[in-house]
Amino acid sequence: MAREIALLTNPTSGKGKGARYREAALSRLRDAGLIVRNLEGRDADEALDLARASVADGVEALVVCGGDGLAHLASQVLAGTGVPLGIIPAGTGNDVARYFDLPRQDPVAAADRVIGSRTRTIDLARTGSRYFITVLAAGFDAIVNERANEMSWPRGQMRYNLATLVELRTFRALPFTLELDGAQIQRDAMLVAVGNGTSYGGGLRIAEGALLDDGLLDVVIIKTMTKPRLIRTYPKLFSGTHTQAPEYERHRVRSVTLAAPGVTTYADGERFGALPLTINCEPAALSVFA
After folding, report:
1. Among 153, 221, 234, 269, which residue's CB has the most CB atoms within a 10 Å radius?
2. What is the per-residue pLDDT across 68-86, written as a single tens digit (0 to 9) for each?
């Protein structure tokens, strides 16, 4: 019998790239003999329902065509099931695709990874019944994301640049309380990030050195620094060399509880929840075509 999979698309990902990449990937998958359920939700809730129904029906894999937000949605459905996740990268950041060295500009080549059926099993980070794949942001980066989501202009990356400038005027280090595998510490910090993987925001390697399959979370603390120094340090996130800064602190743990006033966290680029939160590593929770 032919393999049956589900292809779930966010057509607006990457300024319309999702819709274009779906057509190319869909043709390639069907030409290879796969039966493909072509799914598209009117909103995130409907997309989640469609994904859950397909997995309950017994599809062999759930493939998403979109960005990190759609991979995040799929992880809520697939965690612990053994059903693999396939990715046709079509977002802006595509950090999940970076983790697996998936082609980010060639949907046909990305579809070939699904056809090849080679999988890798990775950990997920979990808070209650919710999961994330990449990094949870708590602090200045999360506040910028929140500000950008409230803005209708400008579009794209410039909106985040403007939000950064707006928040820099008034931002002060926040008092964080962290419980790291039961041991409590307190830090005044610009941000705290909890990494299952290394990067977020389109290749910002905040959790440099994090491994997807070690059963641990990487907790990164950027302690108090001046605004000029924060601006100078930011570009180093793309290379991971921010780890040399004296304000950098890293812990590797199975569980972390974060608390700080007035912080709404983001994970996989999605609004995740207000602090305090307890985040646990869920080992070997997700299978991914890689």
Report:
1. 269
2. 999 999 999 999 999 999 9
Cα–Cα distance between 110 and 90 in angstroms, integer?
10
Q: What is the mean pLDDT of residues 274-286?
A: 97
Look-up of token digits 């199975």? 254
Contact 213, 123 (CB under 8 A): yes
Q: What is the largest CA-CA distance in the chain?
A: 62
Measured N-to-C along each axis, helices 157-168 and 140-150 cross at an angle, to the nearest 10 degrees, of 120
CB 255 within 8 A of CB 280: yes
Q: What is the Cα–Cα distance from 273 to 127, expressed in whole angstroms?
A: 10
Q: Residue 255 burial by CB count (10 A; 0-12/13-18/19+): exposed, middle or buried?
A: middle
Specify the long-range contacts of residues 149-156, CB closer than 8 Å, at least 24 apart: 149/271, 156/15, 156/92
Name residue 225's amino acid: M
Pairing of strands 4-9, 35-39: parallel
Q: What are the distances in angstroms from CA 11 to CA 18, 148, 152, 154?
A: 4, 21, 20, 21
What torsion do the CA atoms of 123, 252, 269, 227 make, to the nearest 10 degrees?
-170
Beta bridge partners of 179: 184, 257
pLDDT in tens, 90-127: 988 899 999 999 999 999 999 999 999 999 999 999 99
Q: 136, 267 in Cβ contact below 8 A?
A: yes
Let me know: does 46 contact 40? Beta carbons within 8 Å.
no
